[in-house]
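User: Can you help me understand a structure? I only have the sequence.
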Amino acid sequence: MNTVFHTQSRHFGVMLALLLSPWGPLSCIRSSTNPKDETTESGSLHSDGSPDSRADSLAPMDSADSGFYVDPRVQELDPYLEPEVLVSPTQLSGGGTASVTYKGVLAGMASVTMRYGFNGWTVSDDIDSYEYEVYDSQVLYYLESTMSRQADGAWYSSVYLPTDARAMHMKFLATSEDGITSTDDNGSQYYSAEISFPLIGPFLTWNGETSPGSGIIVNWETSVPCLGVVAYGTTEDLGSYAVGQTLGNMHHVALTDLQSDQTYYYKVFDSAGRASEPRSFVTPQDSPSSLDFVVFSDMQDSGSDNRWADVAAQVASSQADVDLLLMAGDMAQVDHPGSWWIFFDRARELFPGIPLLPVPGNHDTPGISSSTDTSSFQRYFDLPFASEKEPWYALDYGSTRFLGLCSEDTDSMAPDGAQYAFVQAELDGCGKGQEKTCENVFVAWHIPPYNGGSRHSAEQGDVREITALFEGIVDWVFNGHEHLYQRMQPLRYDGVLAASGEYGQGLQDGVGYVVLPPAGYDPSSYLESSEEGETSSRDFLAYPIVEPEDDIVDSQNGYVVVQVGYKSLSLVAWGMGDNDESSDPEIVDSLSYTK
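Assistant: Let's start by predicting it. Here is the structure, written out as tokens:
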């Protein structure tokens, strides 16, 4: 996480002056310290620009003595860090041109070609023809431009930006004098230029240093490595700001001085002074009496003929007041920067105001099939992970506990695994009887432990053993992966129907299991075959209601809304048609009950 330095309102003008200083349009701040060793510092400045008593040891930012003070451990600051890829003008626009200058590791080669694409490496109606390559299952469309060597040894090209362009992505191919070819793709992250700032985000999360009501993490990505800045306040004048102290493209800046039950406005900046649109969010009450959230899975937008943009827009308009967004994996079509860009871009109006609680799915890791490499997921999302190598977490929202698990690591979900032990400890920590501290418990991961669909039914046993821990404490479990909405009857461990026939935390009640509808990609309609004498998870279904001869059911893109009140809970599943034929939102399943 980026550590931060907080400063109060009367000096926000100093920060803006810093951002808009004559360092150059793409200048950036470089820290030589190890960001892992940094801690959060906060303070304020006196009216004359000198630090107050909490900041007396802080050193000025640069020799110009701007009056902006930073952590003294940041000993070496260089505002003149020059990017290897310079794109100008600073403010790009669709329908215009961009000048690209390359000074990277391949600059000494005999020739350099720029390969570039727009948005998520997807097609534009404004460009006649593209080349393409297939990355896993996603087609990446690109153009190429031969670059010209300049007198200073850099390479130059000018390209047209299509009218619908929101971002440009680049990598560089070079050939040496003796015919050796090389590629510079920025460590597989590609080089990018924002046409809509920022490149990705902003979006909100919580981590181990922030909690609902008192803090939040603001996340966004810029095309140029820098120290990101968040300006925020309880009015649209903003007034306070937080500065990240980790140089990079992906920014996770903590706001740790928030008040509960308060609307906050904010903008994010890069070091060139570019700013996002004003956004806002609401912090929860100290002891919230209710909780509303939306649950998604399987967005997987490839950039065309998918529904994620429609679903995100619908939730933004109809569920704007929910407290958080729970996401059960497969957010990206493939684990590629272009695919991640599409996922975030489709939700630019939804994500800035509602915190996210995501978990990884198989499409969010390399190779589409399951992989324990969750580095991309952890790069984008700053969450209260158990550890750097354990991408699962717990988060308390008032008296409700959320557990976000990683079904890409099925071994750790077995009884002798680290994830199993983590869940056991978290559920034990909820207490029982008079000592109970968790009124509600919700769990999310990607691969369903109970699944009546035919696509991935063979995998349910791989993640089922951990559900033995859930009886009497967990309310609902949310999974995805199958692309077919299913709600199970109240279940005890291993598919035993609850004696009471009710959902709840009583001794005879059962846990609720939901397989979420796909929020963007390819609904499936196929059930496991019903064979006489064999028990199948389709036998546990409360929705859809099927007969033995039914192997195909209706299926739609959609999402689920959960509302939690005092000793009450309701769940509504919404459908919006499929990839071939969209429809107005309709309720496909609902229930409510008193606990």
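Now, to help you interpret it: The longest helix spans residues 308-318. The CA atoms of residues 229 and 243 lie 5 Å apart. Let me know which part you'd like to focus on.
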